[in-house]
Design brief:
The chain is α+β, with helices and mostly antiparallel strands. About 45% of the residues lie in helices and about 15% in strands.
Length: about 120
């Protein structure tokens, strides 16, 4: 395998993030883990994700955090508001975000990861 720079962003307690990390470990892929709750997010990081992947995909509206937000925070969401929400509530990020040499992917499916690490 060629030398790659891999960072996985998620929550240590998230089942999907854990499954992705377990898959990477099983394939002996070296990676850095960034816990979005513990390590936080930067505006540049979130803007990059939103610009490349789209705020509609990065903002996890199926999350408990989203459901617990006041209605006024959930209305009229656009890219700018999504970035502000993601920075204020890092657990709103769809997980995991995988950054492989600047190539981003969202969520975890073994077949998708297999395509990235061949």
């Amino acid at each position: 395998m060629s030398k790659t720079n891999v960072t996985i962003y998620g929550l240590a307690t998230c089942d999907t993030t854990r499954a992705a990390r377990k898959w990477l470990d099983a394939k002996a892929v070296k990676y850095a883990f960034h816990d979005v709750r513990e390590d936080g997010l930067t505006k540049a990081m979130v803007e990059g994700w939103v610009n490349e992947l789209g705020w509609e995909k990065v903002l996890n509206k199926a999350s408990t955090t989203w459901r617990e937000l006041p209605e006024k925070e959930k209305t009229g969401v656009d890219a700018k508001k999504a970035i502000a929400l993601l920075l204020a509530h890092p657990t709103l990020v769809k997980r995991p975000v995988l950054d492989r040499n600047g190539q981003l992917s969202l969520g975890f499916k073994p077949e998708s990861y297999a395509g990235l690490f061949v």
